[in-house]
Write a structure and sequence with these properties.
Number of helices: 13
Largest sheet: 7 strands, mixed
Radius of gyration: 25 Å
Helix content: 25-40%
CATH topology of the largest domain: FAD/NAD(P)-binding domain
CATH architecture of the largest domain: 3-Layer(bba) Sandwich
Number of strands: 26
CATH class of the largest domain: Alpha Beta
Strand content: 25-35%
Strand order of the largest sheet: 15-16-19-14-23-20-22
Number of domains: 3
Length: 555
């Protein structure tokens, strides 16, 4: 295969001004095949196949827009490929062999019980999937409920019902990522092919093929729910077990070695291998682990507000006024350094999305962002967050960051009187409350859950608030009116990542408990759906290199 990198094709638009259907915006494979043949200096008949490896939109020369591709091109024989590359004086053209993911060869010892996986977010789900596919008969314990029941619980809460502490945006099948934008990009370096394997598995179970090559792939919560269900069915089909309403309440440890897992204070499951994929909001589990002296530390994370804008404002800035609303909802990524010394940046940006009530504890409010696969809401939202470190937490110990989060969430609950507190940014600057009767009719929040107009000044610690405001003003230099009259704030974004890190050694096990594998975002080793899934795969590999699969009659 030959790769052609940075191949550009200018985007054409309907002169009528009505715009183009999404399916018409992107060039067909016939157009790409013709362009590839011309670039390589070969005949169309010499090209036997093409594969899109990467795609993005280049809007740096607005209003002229380009689609940018990296293509894999297969010619009719390898000798022609070698000859073509040799005679191409283009640094963007080279021979290429796609690296395929390989699950490792298994170890010598045989497990007598299937590994127990605690939590069914992306880390636990992918760990369980890989182990089930290779004969290890994992038992997945999820404290929440299945995705259908969970969706009913979440929507009932958003519509004014009571919060279910065990079934909400944080807990249940699929983890916190299920009610999110479903972004699948990651900054994790990946020389083993785990990243593409995660994307391939998503496609196998129902995600669109485009996620394999889009520069910023996303699924959307509607499709992600179906993918998670399909993966669960496959785990069961391959000998795994999935148990909902199964909250881990204890670990049995003998002489520094895991012996069992206690469920719901009543049942002991024998286990010599268990994966701690508990997610970043399992605060009661963090407390238990700290009590039994599992080594962990408070770590830095970030806090801030969800910030909403009309999606049309973002589109026009990113694509230009001529074509701004003819293209898919545009994302953005922003960073700033402030006079406080703290970095401020956008996080989990949701084009065409919704702010959602992501609370998991009574008397506390936390928000997140979510979008469906069509990214069809009228608003864009992003967390604009400020770095915080253990020095900010006001207490010591591994759980200091958890206590800090809870204080902020309790403030948000009081400000919103049980609902999400919201405010126009210009009122935030003036330190005056926004009121419902002053709300701009065409720019009301796109929020899943009840909200209340109020004054959220003072919700963040003073230095963080100063940094937040400086960051917002700096971002207006990049995106005009980012800090304008239509900008809406919602608080508080406090669950950006885990506030703790559970120690693990080079074998990915807890140094004090052999057989216990801290994993994923909750343990402090990932920062999103894809990186958590990759970490889950990595832990599955580590179990596999030590042990053979279970015997057919072992469970």
């Amino acid at each position: 295969m030959i790769t052609i990198q940075q191949m550009k094709i200018e985007m054409k638009f309907d002169k009528s001004g009505k715009g183009l259907e999404l399916k018409d915006m992107f060039d067909s494979k016939d157009v790409l095949r013709k362009k590839a043949a011309k670039t390589l200096g070969v005949n169309m008949t010499d090209v036997s196949d093409i594969m899109i490896l990467k795609h993005s939109i280049d809007a740096r020369k607005k209003p002229q827009l380009f689609q940018v591709y990296t293509l894999g091109v297969t010619l009719i024989d390898k000798r022609l490929e070698e000859k073509t590359v040799k005679h191409c004086h283009n640094n963007n053209i080279a021979l290429y062999t796609q690296k395929k993911y390989q699950f490792p060869a298994t170890g010598e010892n045989r497990l007598t019980q299937g590994p127990v996986i605690i939590g069914m977010g992306p880390a636990g789900l992918f760990c369980g999937y890989m182990l089930a596919r290779h004969g290890y008969k994992p038992v997945i314990l999820e404290r929440g409920v299945d995705i259908d029941a969970r969706t009913k619980d979440v929507e009932a809460y958003w519509n004014g019902g009571s919060l279910n502490p065990e079934s909400n945006v944080q807990f249940g099948e699929g983890g916190a990522g299920t009610f999110s934008d479903g972004k699948l990009n990651t900054l994790v370096k990946d020389k083993y092919g785990r990243n593409r394997e995660v994307l391939r598995i998503f496609v196998e179970f129902g995600a669109p093929e485009q996620i394999l090559y889009e520069s910023k792939p996303h699924i959307g919560t509607d499709i992600l729910k179906k993918v998670v269900q399909n993966m669960r069915k496959d785990i069961i089909k391959n000998g795994g077990e999935v148990r909902f309403g199964a909250k881990v309440t204890g670990l049995q440890i003998r002489d520094g070695v895991l012996a069992g897992v206690e469920v719901n204070d009543s049942e002991l499951i024998p286990a010599t291998q268990a994966v701690l994929a508990i997610g970043h909001s399992a605060r009661d589990t963090f407390t238990y682990l700290n009590q039994i002296k599992i080594p962990m530390e408070a770590k830095a994370f970030a806090v801030g507000m969800r910030v909403e804008h009309p999606q049309s404002l973002i589109n026009e800035c990113m694509y230009g006024k001529e074509h701004g609303n003819k293209l898919p909802a545009a994302p953005y990524k922003l960073t700033a350094q402030t006079s406080t010394g703290r970095g401020v940046y956008s996080f989990c940006m949701c084009p065409g999305g919704y702010v959602v009530n992501a609370s998991s504890e009574p008397g506390r409010i936390a928000v997140n962002g979510m979008s469906y696969s069509d990214r069809g809401s009228s608003h864009a939202n992003s967390a604009i967050i400020v770095q915080v470190t253990p020095e900010d937490y006001g207490s010591d110990g591994p759980l200091a960051g958890v206590a800090f989060q809870r204080q902020l969430e309790e403030k948000a609950y009081k400000l919103g009187k049980g609902s999400i507190p919201v405010q126009y940014y210009h009122d935030f600057v003036k330190n005056v409350s926004s009121a419902e009767n002053n709300a701009v009719s065409y720019n009301k929040p796109c929020i899943k859950g009840e909200y209340k107009w109020t004054n959220i000044r003072g919700l963040l610690p003073s230095e963080c608030e100063k940094a937040f405001q400086e960051g917002m003003e700096q971002f207006s230099h990049t995106i005009p009116d980012f800090a304008g009259d239509e900008t809406i704030l919602a608080g508080i974004e406090s669950r950006t990542s885990s506030p703790i890190r559970i120690y693990r050694d080079d074998t990915l096990q807890c140094p004090m408990v052999r057989g216990l594998y801290p994993c994923g975002e909750g343990a402090g080793y990932a920062g999103g759906i894809t990186s958590a899934a990759m970490d889950g795969i990595r832990v599955a590999e580590q179990i596999a290199v030590q042990f053979k699969p279970c015997r057919a009659d072992s469970i």
